[in-house]
Design a protein that fits this description.
The protein has a three-stranded antiparallel β-sheet, covered by helices on one side. β1 and β2 (29-32) form a beta hairpin. It folds into three domains: 19-100, formyl-coa transferase, domain 3 (2-Layer Sandwich); 102-143, no CATH class; 145-178, no CATH class. The chain has eight helices and five strands, in the order ββααααβααββαα. The longest helix has 12 residues, at 67-78. It is elongated. It is of the alpha+beta class. It has helices at residues 36-45, 60-65, 67-78, 83-92, 103-107, 110-114, 151-157, 162-171; strands at residues 19-22, 29-32, 97-99, 118-121, 124-127.
Length: 184
């Protein structure tokens, strides 16, 4: 609306604040505080009922302009809370919030289990398909390949001979096991 091209800003909303992920004492929490009433409820729950009276934070427009200062204030308050429990309390108060979960948390959540969002086959577990169709249920047809399971096949497809592949393997260039401490 400003005539300026949009830029990447991560999860934050350019016209609403607070609307982003924030650190807590445990899990991060995503807040989507869309109006002044929700902001007042958030601040009251965090034990700072006077924060909405601060001239920098009175309205959403003020909070957007002073986004960085608001983040500092909120994260100071949020560090005293458990993200999962706080998100639950805030949702009951009408303040959109959700704990930021990692994959094991998601797989073990009651919501994911209820929605049949966990696909399992032996020791494999993964997230399911969010769209549920009555006539054609999504299912796990194939497990993801094991680490580098198809490496030799891919090298053959692009022209490497079995001797080339074996030479790469002997030289240590053909990684067959995950490295400890690396990104997975």
């Amino acid at each position: 609306m400003s005539g300026k091209p949009p830029r990447r800003i991560g999860n934050a909303h350019p016209n609403i604040s607070p609307y982003d992920a924030f650190k807590t004492g445990t899990k991060s929490i995503f807040l989507a505080v869309g109006n002044d009433r929700q902001f007042e409820r958030l601040c009251a729950e965090l034990g700072a009922p006077d924060l909405p009276k601060d001239p920098r934070f009175r309205s959403n427009a003020d909070r957007v302009v002073n986004r960085d200062a608001l983040r500092i204030e909120l994260e100071r308050l949020l560090l005293n809370h458990d993200g999962v429990r706080l998100a639950d309390r805030l949702m009951r108060l009408g303040v959109p919030a959700g704990a930021v979960l990692d994959i094991p948390d998601v797989l073990n959540s009651p919501h994911a289990r209820h929605r049949q969002m966990v696909l399992a086959d032996g020791d494999y577990q993964g997230t399911g398909i969010p769209i549920k169709m009555s006539q054609s249920r999504a299912r796990l047809r194939f497990r993801p390949p094991a680490f580098n399971q198809d490496g030799a096949d891919i090298l053959r497809e692009i022209g490497y001979t079995p001797a080339d592949i074996e030479a790469l393997r002997k030289a240590g260039a053909f990684v067959t096991e995950r490295r400890k401490g690396g990104v997975e």
